[in-house]
Amino acid sequence: MSGHHHTHADDHGSSLTRRGLLAGAAATGGLIVLGATPGTAQAAKVQVAPGLAAGADRASRITTGTTLVHGDMHNHSLMSDGDGNPDLVFGSMRDAGLDVAALTDHATLFAIEGISRSEWNRAGALADAANVPGTYTALRGFEWSHPLLGHANVWFTNNYVDLGGASSMGRFFTWLTGNGGVAGFNHPGREILRFDNFTFNSGAREQMVSMEIFNRGDDYLFDGWSDTGSSPLVACLNAGWRTGLIGVTDEHGTNWGFQEGLGRAGLWVTGNTRNEVLNAMRARRFFATRVSGFRLDATAGGVRMGGVLGITAGAVQFQVDLDRGAEWVGKPLHIQVLRPDTRAPRVVDVIETTAGSVATFTVPLNVADGNWVVLRVSDPSRPNPSPGPAGHPCNDFGVAYSSPWWLQP
């Protein structure tokens, strides 16, 4: 799409140069994977890098039994089209104060040479060396990459696939269902065919757990609107997918974890381990933000975000906990209630609130109007750099998105 070509073919020159740099880095640097300890996932406060917000406490004000962890699930290195030594990825993100981190280099994308078998194994070894159960979750993943259909991150598999093994969305979904793990739609709408316009595959529904709503500095609610006139969020959820919403940095440089204002994910876990992170992803118990240290928890009729409401119609009470610590106390925020429509989400209510508070409000919902609902948190004082239709309530600056709820059909 216009303004988002993201061409990387000239980042490193030839593959020989890339692999030569990798070999040299390994010979001189070794496995540099552990950095300063940010604290445990269960701690109320964590150590974070200078310039990033210490942020909110990790305990929700409206639910019990889980703890908030901050993660970045989409990062690159010299093993595909990034600039940095993969040995440094996990240590950098831990030093930055993240609790969950993934290295997701590309599978081969024509002109971009992706990971080899040895590099896939190397990524696994780096993640295993950095992983500290209870404190820091390090994950290996990969980015299946098609130049027209789109890109998809895959986590928690023992194998990877490129276009040689999965050259279409259908073949990718077949591979995914045969190999386990979970996956997500990346920067949706950047590539022109947009996952065959999110054509639904019932067999892959449970494994396609996420859609990136924040990638780098972009808000994909309306990104590309001037070209397509269609919100990726609406297209994805209306097609039948049950994806949570996630934010990522998609880092291709060497500042893994340290950049403010880029996408991040908040996951509500029972413990900071790989298994519990996987459980949270499967439950869609996570939110997207592009603000470090931000806390969002939300329930609808007592059901956590990512869940199914056991109703087809009725007035539903929402509770929303928003916080970013002392520096944001009292900051005006809006909560926008997003419901289905044909091209852009319909905003059925806007609740004025402030950071550091719990908002309680009731919204009438009816499955006849569509089976999903999403909460968008915005800063009304700033414009959306990727606006949608003129006058739309979401043309202000997006701060965070809840994962959806689904009404029982």
Automatic annotation (TrEMBL):
<dbReference type="InterPro" id="IPR022028">
    <property type="entry name" value="DUF3604"/>
</dbReference>
<protein>
    <recommendedName>
        <fullName>Polymerase/histidinol phosphatase N-terminal domain-containing protein</fullName>
    </recommendedName>
</protein>
<dbReference type="InterPro" id="IPR016195">
    <property type="entry name" value="Pol/histidinol_Pase-like"/>
</dbReference>
<dbReference type="Pfam" id="PF12228">
    <property type="entry name" value="DUF3604"/>
</dbReference>
<dbReference type="InterPro" id="IPR006311">
    <property type="entry name" value="TAT_signal"/>
</dbReference>
